[in-house]
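User: I'm putting together a teaching handout on how multi-component assemblies are represented. Below are the sequence lines for each component of a complex, exactly as they appear in our records. Could you produce the 3D structure of the whole assembly as structure tokens, so the students can see both representations side by side? Please keep the chain order the same as the input.
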Amino acid sequence: VGALDHLAVGFAVAFTWKNLFYCLVGCVWGTMVGVLPGLGPLAGMTLLLPLTFSLDPTAAVIMLAGIFYGAMYGGSTTSILVRIPGEAASVVTCIDGYEMARQGRAGPALMIAAVGSFIGGSLSIVGLMLFAPPMADAMLRVGPAAEFVLMVLALLVISFVSSGPPIKTLAMVLLGLALAMVGLDPLTAWPRFTFGQLELADGISFVALAIGLFGVSEILLNLERSADLQAIRPRLRDLFPRASDLREAAPAIGRGSLIGFVFGIIPGVSHIISTFVAYAVEKRVSKTPEAFGKGAIAGVAGPETANNATTGSSMIPLLVLGIPSIPATAILLSALLIHGVQPGPQLLSDHPEVFWGLIASMYIGNLILLVLNLPLVGLFVNLLRVPYAYLAPAVLLVSVVGVYSVKASTLDIGIMVAAGAVGYALRKFEFDVAPLLLALVLGERIEVSFRRALTISDGDYAIFFRGAAARVFIVALVLIIVLQGAAWALGYRKRLAASADPPG
Amino acid sequence: MISGVSSRRGEAAVTLVLLGVALYLIWTARGMPAGTVALPGPGFFPIAVGTLLALVSIGILVRLARQQDGARIAFGHRDVAIALGALVGVVILFEPLGAVVTLGLLLFVLVAAFARIALWRAALGALGGAAFAWLVFVQLLGVQLPRGVF
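Assistant: Of course. Below is the structure of the complete assembly, with chains in the same order as your input.
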């Protein structure tokens, strides 16, 4: 009953004209960046991040979250109609979704993807609503030593589940921690690595770095492979699936919801893993596994549902622990911090309007997206006609203005350009930049909790291995590694590599 | 295509830069108070992170030394070089020339280079784009941008 009361308050917050407007803007922009190959949720969120500074924290986070889950919906459209994933988590949908489209069944594929996304997204919000408050209560009793262990575990897990070799991802985590140290020392105000620049006293601008690493580098990479896209055009009257499609898709949507929810809580590339696991599970339980790869509707329903269920549950580590598990939630964290709201166990008591307003807006946003992605799918497909030669300059212009608008700093534009060039080189040679961003966001808290814990224990390192909380986190680590091992055993990496380069 | 590099050489170059960053961290942190284990100072964490980054970088280099030379990776596409060059130009010109003129120039260079259309068409497009950006960002959203020569 308590959660429902809080949710009612959340709906009162979300149902204001202003918040509904920003939810709609987020969903529309998210669908657009999701549809456009090469502009995923990260670029979409970082590009609009500076514009949220003039908003109140609830409206800001509602809009950014709308972009995040809107992109997940939009990404499936491009996968199904063009066989190019609009964003990374839609890679699996290309396999059977495009085959269905080739057989003249693009409509049912889009419909099932949208309905599955809606159900998965909505169920995961219910899970978020039920699990977050008790977890936040438990987290309030955690001290700096356990907090340090938890954050290090999160970064280590990210290193081990990333798509590249763990040692390279670990290097990116350490580089992120190094960048987080630029500025005044949080405990003594000693200037570190500022090169005498007063503008760097506050640290490196997160917005400049994020837009550079994800937005600019993405544009640069896409400039190398820009080619005309040929989309299969769906007919609206063919949208509705057959009864046999529904019978096949319904259990896949149920399983996808569960898989997506579980994987969303785990730090790392949870969206991609959850979709691959959902696909593998559907193929394994299917009575006709030979139909997979040839247009099986369960091969669309399972992964797309899992993808969106992951979005809701990935909010749990962010809102309850204050720890972003994926780059998109790192951007949400940064937006909240800029507004003076600290995500974590005290968020529910200190800023209930933000927490419950966000949850309520996600229900509304999922409905908006269901409406946007079915009747208006033709409109979004038209976006694919915009030549990249015009799209890329426009995005770069918005990036420049967005970064400058934060602190009116030309240095930040320089940082963005440098981060774009570095991100381009890193991604070319398969260094995953997502862990770098997560480490950058967590860096200061890791250092502060580490130093505070040592001060409390009078220099005794054993403090990091004592107490119930530390033991729970170590058990959690073992569980996470087992789960990721299962994902590995299901061959998601091999499938990722195979699907990333689909045969012509 | 401007050039291509072997994946192994490229990875090694990136890793050497990372090693350089690690050594810089350690070297610079020597000038900061390290404190004690019971009361770590501002230099404590940079030395720890720098040392770990150096060890991991050496680990990557050892791993690369044991590998066969991999496939060649296209690096430094013409359009990438133009985009980066234009963005560096923005950093230099943004304050002295003003945002609208600089952004107009950015659009002109990029559209002319990427779309390969007639220069007058690119100029017309850039003019329209810069005017639209001014209308949306300055007039509608109230973003404060440098006025420069205007």
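A couple of points students might notice: Chain A is about 70% helix and 0% strand. The beta strands of chain A are 183-184, 191-192.
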